[in-house]
Amino acid sequence: QVQLVESGGGLVQPGGSLRLSCAASGIFFSPYTMHWYRQAPGKQREFIASITKNRITNYQNSVKGRFTISRDNAKNTVYLQMNNLKPEDTAVYYCNGRYATDDYWGQGTQVTVSS
Questions:
Q1: CB 49 within 8 A of CB 80
Q2: What would the 3-class secondary structure string for 34-83 be?
Q3: What distance in Å separates the CA atoms of residue 115 and residue 101, rounded to the nearest whole number?
Q4: Which pLDDT tens digit goes with each residue over 44-86?
Q5: pLDDT computed for residue 100 by the predictor
Q6: Percent above pLDDT 70 for the chain
Q7: How many other β-carbons are positioned within 10 Å of the β-carbon of residue 28?
Q8: DSSP H helical segments within the chain, as ranges?
Q9: Cα 108 to the chain's mean position, in Å?
């Protein structure tokens, strides 16, 4: 059974930092391109960042320079380091893994940026 389990969300003040983790099980992790998406209330899910098997990264413009995606294939885990958080970053953050026809999603973790 394939599982992607996100963790690390929570409440943080503007300007603060959080590190999200997504642990994968039931798949051979290393070939997968891993993604982070987010969905704010009343909005569509949007792409945040991705990292390929060769560690090539891509970011949405609004998070460039603030967020960093990374992966540890030995731990089957992808991370999202989020710095200088803003209230508009408030959303449920989802992990996604894709390889060939495989497309798996986690259940999401809530990030709330508020003073």
A1: yes
A2: EEEEEECCCCCCEEEEEECCCCCEEECHHHCCCEEEEEEHHHCEEEEEEC
A3: 42
A4: 999 999 999 999 999 999 999 999 999 999 999 999 999 999 9
A5: 95
A6: 100
A7: 10
A8: none
A9: 9
d(C-alpha 14, C-alpha 33), whole Å: 30
Residues in CB range of 71: below 8 A, 6 or more apart:
34, 51, 55, 77, 78, 79
Phi/psi of residue 88, nearest 5 degrees: -70, -5
Greatest Cα pair distance, the chain, in angstroms, is 42
CA 50 – CA 75 distance, rounded (Å) = 18
- Residue 114, φ and ψ in degrees, nearest 5: -160, 150
> Distance between CA 71 and CA 91 in Å, rounded?
22
Would you call 54 helix, strand, or coil by DSSP?
coil
CA-nearest of 90, 68, 61 to 20 is 68
Which residue carries 């970011």 as its tokens? 59
Contacts of 85 (CB under 8 A, 6+ apart): 12, 14, 15, 16, 17, 18, 66, 111, 113
